Amino acid sequence: MPDLSVELGARAYPIHIGAGLLDRADLYAPHLGGGAVAVVTNCAVARLYLDRLERALRAAGARALTRIVIPEGEQAKEWQTLDRVFDELLAARCGRDTLLVALGGGVVGDLAGFAAAVYQRGVPFLQVPTTLLAQVDSSVGGKTAINHARGKNMIGAFHQPLAVIADVATLDTLAARELSAGMAEVIKHGLILDADFVAWLEANLGKLLARDRGALVHAVQRCCQLKAGVVAADERETGLRAILNFGHTFGHAIEAGLGYGEWLHGEAVAAGMVMAAELSARCAGLPSAEVARVRRLVERAQLPARAPALEAERLLELMQADKKAEGGQVRFVLLEAIGRAVLRGGIDPALVRQSMAAAR
Amino acid sequence: MPDLSVELGARAYPIHIGAGLLDRADLYAPHLGGGAVAVVTNCAVARLYLDRLERALRAAGARALTRIVIPEGEQAKEWQTLDRVFDELLAARCGRDTLLVALGGGVVGDLAGFAAAVYQRGVPFLQVPTTLLAQVDSSVGGKTAINHARGKNMIGAFHQPLAVIADVATLDTLAARELSAGMAEVIKHGLILDADFVAWLEANLGKLLARDRGALVHAVQRCCQLKAGVVAADERETGLRAILNFGHTFGHAIEAGLGYGEWLHGEAVAAGMVMAAELSARCAGLPSAEVARVRRLVERAQLPARAPALEAERLLELMQADKKAEGGQVRFVLLEAIGRAVLRGGIDPALVRQSMAAAR
Q1: Which of A112, A143, A173 corresponds to the end of one domain?
Q2: Is B155 on the interface with A (CB under 8 A)?
Q3: Catalytic site includes residue B245
Q4: Residues A239 and A289 in one domain
Q5: pLDDT tens-place string over residues A4-36
Q6: Which residues, at least 6 apart from A245, have a Cβ–Cβ distance to it below 8 Å?
Q7: What is the rounded distance in angstroms from the CA atom of residue B117 to the CA atom of residue B129?
Q8: Is residue A264 within 8 Å of A255, Cβ to Cβ?
Q9: CB A326 to CB B120 under 8 A?
Q10: Beta carbons within 10 angstroms of residue A29's beta carbon
Q11: DSSP codes, B86-144
């Protein structure tokens, strides 16, 4: 059960990874402060894990315990839900020293993290991710947000948790499709930063999909290590951190084009990574044999390697709209080699079109 | 036109104070970054000063200029208004490098500052306060917030501006009642931190109310200096910063008891300061002659020195509710002497009742 740390000076924090951590009172105890705790979770996760978490929190010394259960799904990640969280926190008289605990996947973590960032101008919080996607990606790094009608994650804050407690045993109850979606981000971390890890994934993908705990602990640990390194170097995404968006420029366009919720985020990123690999072969010297490796890994993870039935022109438009909303030009994260990413702007749209066509 | 600075390390920022600064392109130029600017203001201030500000911003090199005009008054300081600001920012494709400029009083500054804190996870912003209250208090220190149905300023962030540009000439158009309300915070700064400044106020209150520019510049400058010192020592209000709430524990209860908007914030704080002075005489050794000085100064500033027609019990309840919402006990900022504040908890409610009665 090896521990990692995100090195952010005074805001450094540990990431605990293992099987059975949910019940470990000793992991919560150091963060309880005044003893008041509010757990934010969704109804599905509440049914499975909330009682156990609360038992552990009580054993750790939590006094007042407030439970706030939000609806499932990406569409819950908006103001209305957030306002309900504030309302319940205020009704329960939760003060500035209340510890917020986010128990769930990316939606719960992003929303509860943002609630923690702005409730009474900021309260401490813990991430207890229960999906693979959240364990390897969204719970680490302090990005929190809700969606706006005009764009995903447009309202948010950088707010680092006091700790991340990732119990891989909670992945036992994850739907196969969700597990695969998380695997997209696992593969991404390897592709942009660590060729050895990609080789390990090629050898161990079967074990991961079979939810072998040892393999899961290793994968989650390696991803968190890689992400923590990037975040420590560039907390607020002024440079390097952008490489974590590999596959995401295409992926976001796919999600927006299909309508959010049609494909899971990880599925869109998977298809987006294959497109990005094709583009890397055209502009960044990635050998075509390596493109094939990317595609094979995505397929073996039971993820879509092919773009959905959307016009290339439409995707291109969506990418530009996405970037224009942020006031910038379209930049792509490309691979020079497996394990080595670069950021490139000013790419000929014709090459982008070709890459999308090649990924069909 | 002497300049001050809020010393917060990498987030240190200047406060410019003078007459006619609104038109000074050179003050805006260093903060323009990419050149995109969005000004948030209210309809009354827009009519008076928006064209002039925009002219100066253009002269400073602003490219895209978005104007976002919100309704007047405290009731605008809530989510609906904030969401409209986000909507207009997104519609105008304002990116992460857009400079937000808050032109107006406390409501505009608090709301626009919070918008800047969370729009695309944080954009830079400038405070251009146009009320005395905002110039001496709310624009300095980085506290931003909106109200929640269950409490004032419950949702917010600490987000420091790049600079504060306080043009005392804009106070010419301020209603007399608003000028007096701002004076309450001016008096407060003296009472908690600077006996000499209190003596200066006693000598110069007439000039200030007559909007003598030299006197206004001096008062705004001294208040900002005092507040900047407190903020630099305790940015996130974990200790010392609480002394800035002198008169506010009573004041908030008065505002809540009368219904927000009935009395101006500064008016409630003024009556609250007299109550707090009475309480200081009972628990902190403030001589009764000094209580009389506080009362006289408040009265001369054309502010209410008497509590409104509310039952003492009701105010006491409201104070406790206010604190319980924040999860703590009621603590009072008291004066040991004029210019020397202390923070005290565990005060006998009987003494609080007596102090309220004495302030009638």
Answers
A1: A173
A2: yes
A3: yes
A4: yes
A5: 989 888 888 999 999 999 999 999 999 998 889
A6: A333
A7: 18
A8: no
A9: yes
A10: 14
A11: HHHHHHTT--TTPEEEEEESHHHHHHHHHHHHHBTT---EEEEE-SHHIIIIITSS-EE
Gap between the Cα atoms of B12 and A331, Å rounded: 32
Could you read off the pLDDT of A245-287 as tens digits, one per residue? 999 999 989 988 888 778 999 999 999 999 999 999 999 999 9
Q: Is the ipTM of this complex over 0.90?
A: yes
Are residue A113 and residue A214 in the same domain, yes or no? no
Domain count, chain B: 2
Residue B92: how many other CB atoms lie within 10 Å: 17
Do B225 and B350 lie in a common domain? yes
Say yes or no for a CB contact (<8 Å) between A157 and B34. no
CATH number at residue A210: 1.20.1090.10
pLDDT in tens, B341-358: 999 988 998 999 999 888
Same domain for B152 and B295?
Answer: no
Q: Which domain holds residue B59?
A: 3-173
CB contact under 8 A, A157 and B98: no
Q: What is the CATH number of the domain that holds A23?
A: 3.40.50.1970
Residues B352 and B235 in one domain: yes
Same domain, B185 and B155: no
Indicate the residue among B173, B189, B207 that finishes a domain: B173
Element at B151 (helix H, strand E): strand B151-158
Catalytic residue among B31, B227, B293, B295: B227
Which residue out of B67, B188, B222, B248 is catalytically annotated? B248
In this prediction the pTM is 0.94
Closest by Cβ to A97, choosing from B79, B155, B327? B327
CB atoms within 10 A of CB B88: 17
The answer on A152 and A202 residing in a single domain is: no
Identify whether residues A98 and A148 lie together within a single domain.
Answer: yes
Cβ distance B315 to B249 under 8 Å? no
Cα B226-B198-B15 angle, rounded to 5 deg: 30
